[in-house]
């Protein structure tokens, strides 16, 4: 998430009321999660296990809960609770805007696009040309939809990320300041949910097609010409490359990559990165040819047991 304008390290430290390490005028341009950071970004870390990863990341400002040696060319914000202060920055730079109408006055809707009754279009939404939003679609703030997109009834774009920190008092929510971006020629079926990024974007690539009741988690990137069948659930921070086919009721764990032209058969569970150009089956998902041979062998067990008895 980029700030509307560049800030200094001292300004950010003042907002958070924390100590800082680095030049007062050190430039700060945004906040992001570790997997999408770039120079000018703040990344937060609150566990020693991940200190090195954060300090050596592309982020040039690290919001951290211990004063450590600052790498050259970077700056630190020292906080007793980086998770809380990351939320504070999200609230400050991307505050909640109350809706005042079913279709926001700040929404931009392109030529020949049709918005059916009972849709909700939030603040700062952009919808391209020749789109069709069927009745009862909900589009949260800051969503961007390209041209020639069809979205069926009951679908929700831009709900919050499912991201919590467990504390003694219960679960503390990490606030979402990212967006959903739908590229051109995408079809989204009925009753789908696509969550916005925590600080980055959840992206559905050009020409991809989602069946009914598909869930896409925060910060996930779906490539071009991807087919996803009904009741598939894809967790946050997943990368699905171009021309992948995912059949019904597949579950995909957070942080994995499904590479180009892979095919995932129905009811499979994907818990690791999968190579492209192959088909997969089972939970955990494995090469389908290997899996089918295993299943054929299992069917021989009763016969083998009968032979042993003889």
TrEMBL record:
One Gene Ontology molecular-function label: N-acyltransferase activity
InterPro entries in alphabetical order: Hexapep (IPR001451), LpxD (IPR007691), Trimer_LpxA-like_sf (IPR011004), UDP_GlcNAc_AcTrfase_non-rep (IPR020573)
SUPFAM superfamilies: Trimeric LpxA-like enzymes
GO CC terms: membrane
Limits of the UDP-3-O-[3-hydroxymyristoyl] glucosamine N-acyltransferase non-repeat region domain: 25-91
Protein known as: UDP-3-O-[3-hydroxymyristoyl] glucosamine N-acyltransferase
Organism classification: Bacteria, Pseudomonadati, Bacteroidota, Flavobacteriia, Flavobacteriales
Native source species: Leeuwenhoekiella aequorea
Keyword annotations from UniProtKB, A to Z: Acyltransferase, Lipid A biosynthesis, Lipid biosynthesis, Lipid metabolism, Repeat, Transferase
GO process terms (BP): lipid A biosynthetic process
């Amino acid at each position: 998430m980029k700030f509307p304008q560049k800030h200094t390290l001292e300004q950010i430290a003042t907002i958070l009321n924390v100590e800082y390490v680095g030049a007062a005028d050190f430039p700060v341009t945004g906040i992001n999660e570790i997997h999408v950071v770039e120079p000018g970004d703040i990344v937060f870390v609150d566990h020693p296990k991940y200190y090195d990863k954060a300090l050596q990341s592309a982020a040039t400002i690290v919001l951290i809960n211990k004063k450590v040696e600052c790498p050259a060319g970077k700056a630190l914000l020292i906080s007793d609770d980086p998770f809380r202060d990351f939320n504070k920055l999200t609230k400050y730079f991307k505050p909640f805007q109350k809706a005042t109408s079913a279709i926001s006055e700040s929404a931009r809707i392109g030529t020949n696009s049709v918005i059916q009754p009972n849709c909700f279009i939030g603040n700062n939404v952009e919808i391209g040309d020749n789109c069709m939003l069927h009745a009862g679609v909900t589009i949260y703030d800051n969503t961007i939809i390209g041209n020639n997109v069809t979205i069926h009834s009951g679908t929700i774009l831009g709900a919050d990320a499912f991201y919590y920190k467990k504390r003694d008092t219960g679960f503390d929510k990490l606030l979402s300041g990212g967006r959903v971006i739908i590229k051109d020629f995408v079809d989204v079926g009925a009753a789908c949910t696509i969550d916005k990024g925590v600080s980055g974007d959840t992206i559905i690539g050009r020409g991809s097609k989602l069946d009914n009741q598909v869930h896409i988690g925060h910060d996930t990137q779906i490539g071009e010409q991807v087919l996803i069948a009904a009741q598939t659930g894809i967790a946050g921070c997943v990368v699905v490359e171009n021309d992948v086919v995912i059949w019904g009721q597949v579950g995909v764990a957070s942080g994995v990559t499904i590479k180009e032209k892979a095919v995932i058969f129905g009811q499979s569970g994907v818990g690791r990165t999968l190579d492209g150009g192959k088909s997969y089956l089972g939970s955990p998902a494995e090469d389908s040819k290997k899996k089918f041979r295993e299943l054929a062998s299992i069917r021989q067990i009763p016969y083998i047991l009968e032979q042993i008895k003889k």
